Amino acid sequence: MTLSREQMAQRVARELQDGYYVNLGIGIPTLVANYVPEGIDVMLQSENGLLGMGEFPAEAELDADMINAGKQTVTARPGASIFDSAESFAMIRGGHVDLTVLGAFEVDVEGNIASWMIPGKLIKGMGGAMDLVAGAENIIVIMTHAAKDGASKLLPRCSLPLTGAGCIRRVLTDLAYLEIENGAFVLKERAPGVSVEEIVAKTAGKLIVPEHVPEMTF
């Protein structure tokens, strides 16, 4: 079976390390805030000016003024701070974010990422993704492995306008966890019940498959 949005967030949350400052992009990445492992203390940053995001609020905790970059209502953990977007982007551009989790339309074997526009479609703006991929060395992309029409989104070369070049090393899809090494995707883990053959069939870019590919556990 393919991973649910929640399972994808759970898997990425395992990559968090104690003391990390982490930026969560719009979409599935924001769910990672709900799955920070016990005993791990991280500060979640949102580029609209919040450091110290907590879990999504229960109905009784809703505060319409407390939002993330995706306009979702969030909570602030003890010790959180609120500031303007200039200060937030100074953190990002200054390399002070330890891990960035982003969504994407396409990723390719060279570590390029396309995540901000599809030509011919209305966009609200590029957001902070270009700054994030330029300012962070540790990036995980969360995305679906294939488009709705079945076309692969893991490519030999991105076809959409690039958000960043040569900056991606780790990708989690609804089918697999992969790393990018020497111009190829390397299959590290597969979703429960998903065969290696299915992953191979839905990966357009060069794919290296080790002899043993473990299933993820939840």
Give a structural overview.
- The protein is α/β, with parallel strands linked by helices.
- It has one domain (5-208): Glutaconate Coenzyme A-transferase.
- It has four helices and 13 strands.
- The protein has helices at 5-13, 85-93, 129-135, 196-201, and strands spanning 21-24, 43-46, 50-53, 76-82, 99-103, 106-108, 113-114, 139-143, 154-155, 170-173, 176-181, 184-190, 207-208.
- The strands form two sheets. A ten-stranded mixed β-sheet has the order 4-3-2-1-5-8-10-11-12-13, with helices on both faces. Strands 7-6-9 form a three-stranded mixed β-sheet, with no helix packed on it.
- Strand 11 (176-181) and strand 12 form a beta hairpin.
- The chain is globular.
- The two termini are 13 Å apart.
- The model has no long low-confidence stretch (mean pLDDT 92).
Topology:
Elements: H1 5-13, E1 21-24, E2 43-46, E3 50-53, E4 76-82, H2 85-93, E5 99-103, E6 106-108, E7 113-114, H3 129-135, E8 139-143, E9 154-155, E10 170-173, E11 176-181, E12 184-190, H4 196-201, E13 207-208
Parallel strand pairs: 1-2, 1-5, 5-8, 6-9, 8-10, 12-13
Antiparallel strand pairs: 2-3, 3-4, 6-7, 10-11, 11-12
